[in-house]
Amino acid sequence: MRYLAAIAAVFLAGGALIADAADDAAAEALMKKSGCFKCHSVDKKKDGPSYKSVAEKYKGKPDAEQKLYTHLTTNPKVKVDGKEESHDNLKTKNDAEIKNVIQFVLTR
Amino acid sequence: MLRQMWKVVRDRYPSRIKAAGFVLLLAASLVLIGAVLVVGGAAGLAWTETEAFCTGCHEMRDNVYAEYKGTIHDRNRAGVRAICSDCHVPKEPVALIKRKMAATFEVWGHLTGKIDTKEKFQARKAELAHHVWKRMKETDSLECRNCHDASHMESTLMSERAQARHAKMKSEGKTCIDCHFGIAHSEPEGPGPSELFPPAPPKGPGKVAEGQAPPAK
Fold first, then answer.
1. CA quadruple B163, B164, B169, B172: dihedral sign
2. Residue B201: is its pLDDT beyond 70?
3. How many A×B Cβ pairs under 8 Å?
């Protein structure tokens, strides 16, 4: 019985790891489709902050998810080179997908 | 010298006509051999520019080519493509030959397995990208400008954002690769072209920027 539990645990852990990778891949695919990487890089500053710096900025903040959710769905104004521009939304209406992207960004 | 050669030919062919015929045949053969070498050489060079040639090595096929597939330079609305040689091999004759000669080191790298596993490739990915970025910074993104001419970009067809960015490119003396990196292949980790290589004055026909650039941000 204990062996069965151990084997099940291994499969679950493996599944979690693979699921993580799949979620990352799904997030990146959606972000690519939405044009995020035109202005953002994971670790370099482009027109927008790097996702590493975003993750750093929101580390430990309880309202991080909510703030980012608003950011990605309401076309807020952002400042680029001193000029105001409208920030693009994620190209999806699916909540789970949006949350997945937020998780991707917050875990860089 | 020519007199001596003619004498040798006349000794073999006393008849003037036959001697002339021999010389003519010799000249024609030399021209033919020359033509074959030139055409063969050109064909060989052209073959090394094809997608099939470049992706013949698994190091390319499984890594950078796999990253490139599906990107905008591979598939897009109009089906206009840029393949490996369009971005990585110069078209100017001298630069082209130099690049082809340098490519022999790549054959050596293939034979000695420099990046023949995914792990080895990932370990050197940044270094490889830096080589390309360095060359592009030095030539004002020459390979981009083979197809993309900033001075002929129709601003009415560009988004406002694109117009703003390209105006910034002009005023800050940037070159294409400063912002448009990680497009054909996925970005390596670490600093980008602007951070690695301080802005250089553009070489060649100054299609992009004029004069020196201010210090990068």
1. positive
2. no
3. 23
Taking 50 as the pLDDT cut, the residues of chain A under it are none
| CATH number of the domain enclosing A39 | 1.10.760.10
Q: Dihedrals φ, ψ of B130, to 5°?
A: -60, -35
Whole-angstrom distance, CA of residue B166 vs CA of residue B144:
14
Residues B9-49 pLDDT 10s: 889 888 989 999 999 999 999 999 999 999 999 999 999 99
ipTM: 0.71
- The band of B112, judged by pLDDT with boundaries at 50, 70 and 90, is very high
Show the domain range for A79. 2-106
Task: State whether A42 and B187 contact (CB < 8 Å).
Answer: yes
Three-state DSSP state, A83: strand
Number of compact structural domains in chain A:
1
Residues contacting residue A74 through CB under 8 Å, at least 6 positions apart: A89
Whole-number Å distance between alpha carbons of B176 and B18:
65
Residue from B151, B129, B164, B145 nearest B203 by CA:
B145
Q: Report in angstroms the alpha-carbon separations of A18 from A15, A25, B34, B179.
A: 5, 10, 60, 33
Residues B199 and B138: their CA atoms lie apart, in Å, by 9
When CB atoms are compared, the residue of A41, A43, A81 closest to B168 is A81
Amino acid (1-letter code) at residue A49? P
Residue with tokens 């390596």: B188
C-beta neighbour count of B128 within 10 angstroms: 15
- Residue B149: how many other CB atoms lie within 10 Å: 12
Whether B192 and A41 lie within 8 Å, measured CB to CB: yes
The SS3 call for residue A58 is: coil
